Every structure is written in C-alpha cells, then in structure tokens.
Amino acid sequence: MKIFIDFDDVIFNTKKFKKDLFEIFSKYSITEEEYEKSYYDPNDNRSIKMHDVEGQLRRLSEMHSFDEKSLRKSLEIFLHDSSDYVFTDVVPFIILHEKDKLSIVSFGNLDFQKKKIRSSKIKKYISDAKVTDKNKVEILFTAIKENKNSKEKIFFLDDRVEQLRNVKKEIPDIITILVKRPESRYQDIKDEKCCDFEAHNFAEVQEIIKKFIQ
Asked: Which helix (H) or strand (E) holds 106?
C-alpha cells in the first residue's frame, strides 16, 4: 500500500502557524493588514499560492523600515522547532502504517517548505518528503513507477480539490481522499468526480482505508 499525504492543513496546522507567525512580525511594528498584504506575491495569480518568508520580508521592506536583522533572528528561533503544529492524530496513523509506503507530497516554495517540514520533525516518522512548486502529478507518477505493483492500493490525501482533480485526471486508479479538518484554512466542496472520499481527521481516513484491506 502506498499513501501520499499533503503537508499543510493535513499533517500541519498551518492556520495556527500563520497566526503565530504574525505575532512575531507584529513585535516589529508590522500591522495585520501589512502582514496579510505581503503574505503572498501579488503577481502570483494561481488559485493555490505559495508563501515564503524571504519574499514576505522583501515585500514588507518596501512598505516601511524595521529591524530586519532582529526579525530574522526571531524567525530563526521560531522555525527551529514547529513540531507542536503537527496534528495529534498524525503520528498514531503513521505508526499504524509503518509497514506501508508513506510519503509527504507538498506544494510550496521549495526552500521555505522544506525548512517548514524539517522544523515540524515529522520526518522522524515519514522519511520520504517531496516538495514541488509545480503540479503534484509529476511527483506521484515517479513514485508510483518505482516498484510498481498492479495490485497495490494507492491513496492520495489532500485538502485542496484542485490538487485532487489534477492527480485523479492523470492517475484515475488512485484513491483520493479530501481531508477537511475543522482547523483547515480551506473548506473546499467535495467534487464527486475527483474525490472518492471525504474525511475530517485521520481516524476517518483510517476507516476509509480499512475498507480496502483484504
């Protein structure tokens, strides 16, 4: 069995992370309006946008001056360990599937997303973590080709319908699960054509997977 799992809002409480990140910025006279305005690149017109701290700092520096060196130090301390943002049901689920092939497949700015995943300490439990700033389909195609077993069940968990749609279109046999946690930043509506199931936590994900275990 292969299980591909999205990181933000599925494994990681990104909504709370973003809120706490603002608390750090606010100590340097950065308002919530400025924080939100600078969070994403204004020229990024994609429906699923990428956040990275370096880009945000650059955009904020164009708004007004602040002690950037001190802020960077505060961010470095904050990003040293973000394991508290990993949802509590994640590790028990991973342990249940220690004999299966689990992979994190995350979309985002390559440098910042890798740093965030590393900071979460989740790689102690899932060593395979892949990040892309493009379509997740490419990563899944490559991973599925490796040691391909036609009888092996393959699951893909994500909180964004667009990601599930892209993957289901190219890999129709994959079993897609829309994960809609109450804490998620997004609450996409399930699309029956691309979302085989919907779950709100990993206990529900496990119940879905159990249906496919012989």
From this structure: strand 101-107
